[in-house]
Amino acid sequence: MKSNYSLRAAIAAAGLAAALVASHALAQDKAATQSATELPGSHTLTVDRQEILRNSKVGKDITRQEDIFTDQEDADFGGENDALRAEAQTLQQQLPTLTQDVRTQKIKAYRDKQTAFRQKVQSRLSQIQAVTSQARERVEAAVAPIIQDIMRERGADLVIEKAMVVTSKAGLDITSIAMQRLDQKLSKMTVEQPKTPHAAPEKKQ
Prior knowledge:
The protein has helices at residues 7-37, 49-55, 57-94, 100-153, 175-185, and strands spanning 44-47, 158-161. The chain is mainly α.
């Protein structure tokens, strides 16, 4: 039986929440950004770093590894989730025949299992997000000097996030050229394997 549980869905939901927070912050910065782009005599370029993180070769490689982690955890946790659902159905059928004390004990025992499972899932979600975020931070560090080089080559004074710009002239966005140079410099990156809750602690020598 296929499980309805999906860690990938949980990660997607967390990512959407983070994007909404970021969008709110960007909206607050738009006024300041517009005034910066309108400085007399300045030459400003734009870049979409999120686009680079998503669609560069190394960005796709990180996503590929993230998918492997989430597929594995879907398999690991899916069975446990199905078992908890089956136990809940059985308990619901048994409750009318139980004494009050036994009913209370069984409900508490089930809730304790459910809480422990949720904590384990949340721990796994946090670990996957942590290792992929660390990898993407390394990509951002590799992109930074590329953006600086393009800025110098084009005689620009400023490079700002494209999402902060309401409108601009054609030719000011350097996302594509920055991504091309990153692809030449860095196409793959190993993402650290998240720790599994099943792994036993290493013995000290």
